[in-house]
Specification:
homodimer; alpha+beta; Arc Repressor Mutant, subunit A; 2 domains; globular; DNA-binding
DNA sequence: TTACATGCAAACTGTTTGCAAATAT
DNA sequence: ATATTTGCAAACAGTTTGCATGTAA
């Protein structure tokens, strides 16, 4: 759990009012390394932590954080959205059997041979998702 | 528009009963090169082609086709699903401004430096989406 | 004639929104 | 005091499903 003051700083820096709800969510989100979390999951964790935050507020907060650059949204399956606390350039494993996202460690991974971007466009970012089948990988940490 | 008999063959080969609806959708889907289409779009095209197919059937058919290996589903944004008539290994541009998918041409693009897949897993497939910002790329073909 | 496919409308899921009450500045 | 944020419930979009009807084999 992120120290309260760090959460406060984070919000202030992002230009977001440090409300009770945002502070709680910030502490949960950024308190334990890189995480990939859905709105429902975050809501559940907030409840478990006795931080009373409505689901709507969780959604709004995740969107605000994303807009503020604190989070990055990762689209995997059509149904739910994952929010990644790691906003730097990096790619993902997706464990199909568990519906879980994992950072790909190591920075030697890269995409090569990209042709020119069409017309007047420029590359915003490159999403790479390595879909893993089978196994029950990742020592099943209770949260991620 | 794919010739009727080709559509018939395609369905038979896939082990799907060649119903009127499936035949129409097959003709629309596979009649003009590689396409990236949503259920709503396909439904609209079917209507325009006087092929009366309910939206539910369009959804069911797209799923059946995907399961049968005739289509590939591409997850982009959380909201809608795209179905790709190109089931071979290839990557995509995503035009953020238009919400449109484009194949990346050229087969020299590749992902290198991948670490070992965790545990007992194996790579199912690798999705690469190059997100393009701005411009109004792609000569705006009326369909794709 | 029998198993499978379709259409409709209702159900469902994840997400967003309108508005009154609560809160940060 | 004022603008922002919250919570709730209702709205919403995309998708799936149950069931009676229709159709391919």
């Amino acid at each position: 759990m992120l120290p309260f003051c760090d959460a406060l700083d984070k919000l202030r820096t992002a230009g977001l009012r440090p409300t009770r709800q945002r502070l709680s969510l910030t502490q949960i989100l950024f308190g334990q390394g890189n995480r990939h979390i859905t709105a429902e999951e975050l809501h559940a964790e907030a409840q478990a932590a006795k931080a009373d935050v409505s689901l709507a507020t969780v959604y709004n907060t995740l969107n605000q954080f994303t807009e503020a650059g604190l989070l990055r949204e990762v689209a995997i399956e059509g149904d739910r959205s994952y929010f990644d606390t790691n906003t730097s350039n990096h790619f993902h494993y997706y464990l199909e059997s568990e519906g879980r996202l994992l950072d790909i460690e190591g920075d030697d991974i890269q995409v090569i041979g990209l042709p020119q971007a069409p017309d007047g466009t420029e590359i915003d970012r490159i999403d790479v998702i390595v879909r893993l089948r089978g196994g029950n990988a990742g020592k099943r940490p209770e949260t991620t």
